[in-house]
Structures are given as C-alpha cells and as structure tokens.
Amino acid sequence: MEKTVLEEIIYRQGAQRDRLLPILQDVVEQQNFLTEGDMLHIANLLQMSAAEVYGTASFYSFLPLNRKGKYMIRLCKSIIAKMKGSDQVLAAITDQLGIKPGETTADGVFSLELVNDIGWSDREPAMLINDKVFTDLDPVKVTHILTNYLKQASTQAFVTNLSTN
Question: Which domains are present in the chain?
C-alpha cells in the first residue's frame, strides 16, 4: 500500500498504540491483506516494534498476511457446526469453487478458510462471506449463495472491462 494511504489511515485513526487493531483492519479493508512493508511502516509511525505489529496481525484470522480473494469465505468448523452438517456444506463449497481451505481461486475471486467460531452456534452451519453472515446452511443453499456471488463478480468484471476500454 502506498505510504501516503497508510499515513492517512493512521491520521484518521490516531497514531496511538491502542489504535493498532483498527488501523490494521482499515488496511485490510482497502487491499484485502497486510504486506510486510505495511506492517513495518505502521510500526515506524506508531513507534512500535515490527514484531509487535506482526504479532497482532498474525493472531487474528481476519487480518490476512497473504493476498486473498475479493470474497473471503469463513466457514465455522466447530463441533456444533459439524454435528449440523458443515462437512457437507464444505464439500459443496470445494466442489463448486475448486479450492480447499486455505486456498484462493485462480481468478482471485474467492478464498476459503475454516474458523473456530463466528458467533452463530445456534444457527449452524454458518459462514461469513466478507462481513455478511449466512446461517442454517445446507449444500443446496450454499451452492445458490455462491452462484449469486459468481454472477456478481462476473458482472463487475464485465463493467470494469468496459470502462477501461
């Protein structure tokens, strides 16, 4: 990320140590992941060690340190989710997208992660796509959800391609 953009984020959030997490979240919101350079620059601007910034960033699964897809799918892998059919939901996702947990589709549209809890245990199986919650999932429902996201992604790519030509 450009240093000036990082500096704007830090200026807006405040250059205090206790603002580190919101700063990291803003960076991820803008580019979907944190680079080593981003973390070093943040550490310098907040007068922290790079290890402190990296330690915070690597602790939270919602602060990816590698390039992720436009749509980040987080599927709950709790025992409750498994008892209610999350393995079948996972199979539907991997079959439709052709990726396994920890991977990103070749077109960069989707990434898939298994997470311990997303806070919807009473409505499992549940997943997040970016910040949107989907609950009471089954293979048919998840296939329909992903099809809608694929259509949206292809429409956006088409519009972007038209505007650049």
Answer: 3-59 (1.10.10), 71-164 (3.40.30.10)
